[in-house]
C-alpha cells in the first residue's frame, strides 16, 4: 500500500514533489522551486502584485499550475520570463534539475545601449559641483 500514496519525495536521483505525468502545485511555490524567484515570499508578492500570469490571466499565489501551462513572470528590472511548465515540482531543486522542469520561451534580453561611461574624476577631488554635473549630463546627451 505504501506505493499507492501520493505524497512524494525525491527517489534516487528523482525530482521531488511531482512527476512529468501530471499533478499540480501552487504557482508561487512552483516559480520558487524552479528558481525563477529567489524566495517563496517573493513569488507570492509577485503574484499579489500582478506580475505573474498563467495562460494570459493574472493569478493569485495559490493558483494551481499544471503541465503545459504558460507562466509569464515580469521581474523588477523590466525583463519578462516566459516559460511552459514541463514538470510540476513542489520542492526547490538545484539549477540543473530546475531547467528540466520548464521550456524557456523568454525573449532575448535587450541589447545594452551604447551609453557613454560616467565621467572619471581624479581621486580626492571631492563631490561634483552642480556645474560639473550639468557638464557631465550635457556630454552624455541629457539636455535638461
What can you tell me about this protein's structure?
The protein has four helices and seven strands. The protein has 144 residues and is α+β, with helices and mostly antiparallel strands. β5 and β6 form a beta hairpin.
Characteristic terms for this protein:
4 helices, 7 strands, alpha+beta, two-stranded antiparallel sheet, disordered N terminus, 5-stranded antiparallel β-sheet, 144 residues, elongated
> How many helical stretches?
4
SSE arrangement, N to C: EHHEEEEEHEH
Q: Structural class per helix/strand content?
A: alpha+beta
* Major β-sheet profile: 5 strands, antiparallel
**Terminal Cα separation, in Å?**
74 Å
Spatially, the strands of the biggest sheet line up as 3-2-5-6-7
Amino acid at each position: 500500500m505504501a506505493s499507492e500514496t501520493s505524497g512524494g519525495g525525491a527517489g534516487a536521483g528523482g525530482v521531488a514533489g511531482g512527476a512529468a505525468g501530471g499533478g499540480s502545485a501552487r504557482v508561487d511555490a512552483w516559480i520558487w522551486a524552479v528558481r525563477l524567484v529567489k524566495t517563496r515570499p517573493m513569488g507570492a508578492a509577485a503574484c499579489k502584485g500582478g506580475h505573474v500570469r498563467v495562460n494570459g490571466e493574472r493569478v493569485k499565489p495559490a493558483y494551481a499550475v499544471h503541465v503545459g501551462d504558460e507562466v509569464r513572470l515580469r521581474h523588477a528590472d523590466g525583463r519578462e520570463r516566459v516559460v511552459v511548465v514541463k514538470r510540476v515540482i513542489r520542492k526547490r531543486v538545484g539549477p540543473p534539475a530546475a531547467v528540466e522542469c520548464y521550456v524557456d520561451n523568454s525573449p532575448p534580453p535587450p541589447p545594452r545601449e551604447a551609453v557613454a561611461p560616467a565621467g572619471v574624476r581624479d581621486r580626492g577631488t571631492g563631490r561634483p559641483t552642480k556645474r560639473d554635473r550639468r557638464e557631465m549630463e550635457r556630454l552624455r546627451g541629457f539636455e535638461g
